[in-house]
């Protein structure tokens, strides 16, 4: 009968248990317009809006998560007045979380995405059939969660977006956090 494990055995059991944990995170997003610039050229008004997502992550797992990093991909649906495109990657980023306790909360803000709008004035029209209003829209978010460099969870506003969000995202973002 074993009454005590060696320090090496205890470390092995702790490491093994950590690799077997299924991590689950609750993701809440809030879109936030950071600013708008408008210009007018002849009979067309152009606007450029800066949008970010304010993200709140909650650890719903049964264990604490340490050495946690979130890579995110922000998607844009563009509209040129003739054809609206499907979602495509517009911005990527990484937020280093570090340790997130069970039921802990972490908040951060994504990098900005620029959405373009254009509107033709009054009774003017384009002879080629282009609409007199065109506007880009946010196309969704995909996130991949990494613990110690190994992916432990993936989430997206639409399941199809995860296919486009592969590999690792761009450089790290300094972010505000609360646990």
What's the helix and strand layout?
Blueprint (H helix, E strand, L loop, with lengths): L6 H14 L4 E17 L2 E16 L5 E13 L10 E13 L4 E5 L3 E8 L12 E3 L1 E11 L2 E7 L4 H4 L7 E2 L6
Parallel strand pairs: 4-10
Antiparallel strand pairs: 1-2, 2-5, 2-6, 3-4, 3-8, 6-7, 8-9
Describe the overall structure.
The chain is mainly β and 179 residues long. It has a single domain (7-170), classed as Immunoglobulins (Immunoglobulin-like). 10% of the residues lie in helices and 53% in strands. The strands form 2 sheets. Strands 1, 2, 5, 6 and 7 form a 5-stranded antiparallel sheet that branches. It has a 5-stranded mixed sheet with strand order 9-8-3-4-10. The longest helix has 14 residues, at 7-20. The protein is elongated. The model is unreliable at 172-179 (pLDDT under 50).
What distinguishing features does this structure have?
5-stranded mixed beta sheet, mainly beta, 10 strands, disordered C terminus, 5-stranded antiparallel beta sheet, 179 residues, Immunoglobulin-like, 2 helices, elongated
Write a brief structural summary.
The protein is mainly beta.
Helix content class: 10-25%
Judging by the overall fold, what is the CATH architecture?
Sandwich
Regarding CATH, which class? Mainly Beta
Structural class: mainly beta
Distance between the termini: 42 Å
Count of individual helical segments = 2
By CATH, the superfamily comes out as Immunoglobulins
Low-confidence stretches: 172-179
Strand content: over 45%
Q: How many E strands?
A: 10
């Amino acid at each position: 009968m074993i009454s005590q494990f060696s320090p090496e055995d205890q470390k092995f059991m702790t490491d093994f248990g950590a690799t077997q944990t299924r991590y689950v995170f609750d993701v809440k997003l809030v879109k936030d317009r950071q600013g708008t610039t408008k210009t007018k050229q002849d009979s067309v008004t152009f606007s450029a809006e800066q949008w970010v997502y304010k993200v709140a992550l909650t650890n719903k797992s049964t264990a604490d998560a340490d050495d946690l990093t979130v890579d995110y991909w922000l998607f844009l649906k563009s509209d040129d007045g003739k054809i609206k495109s499907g979602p495509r990657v517009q911005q990527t980023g990484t937020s280093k979380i570090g340790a997130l306790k069970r039921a802990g909360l972490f908040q951060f803000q994504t990098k900005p995405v620029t959405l373009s709008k254009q509107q033709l004035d009054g009774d003017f029209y384009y002879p080629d059939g282009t609409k007199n209003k065109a506007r880009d829209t946010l196309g969704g978010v995909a996130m991949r969660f990494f613990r110690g460099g190994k992916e432990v969870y993936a989430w997206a506003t639409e399941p199809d977006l995860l296919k486009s969000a592969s590999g690792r995202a761009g450089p790290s973002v300094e972010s505000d956090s609360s646990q």
